[in-house]
Design brief:
Elements lengths: L25 H36 L3 H4 L1 H11 L21 H17 L1
């Protein structure tokens, strides 16, 4: 016996959901909630993976981590912007508005990493 196809997951938002009248279709409302939660978890896990890579880079590079891990710091700050539960209103100074403020943000990332490694 041969399988004709693989498993197909519905990765998009529900078709029948109307944001202007969300309670018109209760099934679509629940599917929209599940979709938003699923997407939020995916973003959180992506940020965790980048954080693990950044921790590895800090350990490997040692004193050169400011130059060698700069791209990972920027990726991590971009990945954590608006990620998490109720974090959409975080101030921009925690992220840096552009690439010029990256060294100021490295200290924030170091503090976060040290807190995570203590757990």
């Amino acid at each position: 016996m041969v399988r004709k196809g693989g498993v197909k997951f519905d990765e998009g938002p529900p078709d029948g959901f109307d944001p202007n009248d969300p309670y018109a279709d209760p099934v679509a409302l629940l599917e929209q909630r599940e979709y938003l939660v699923r997407e939020k978890w995916i973003d959180i896990e992506k940020a965790k993976i980048i954080r693990e890579r950044l921790q590895w880079c800090y350990r490997i590079e040692g004193v050169n981590h400011l130059q060698k891990c700069r791209h990972l710091v920027q990726q991590y700050l971009d990945a954590t912007r608006g990620v998490g539960w109720n974090k959409e209103a975080r101030p921009i100074e925690l992220h840096g508005a552009d690439n010029n403020g990256i060294f100021a943000c490295i200290m924030i990332v170091k503090i976060r990493l040290s807190l995570v490694s203590q757990c």
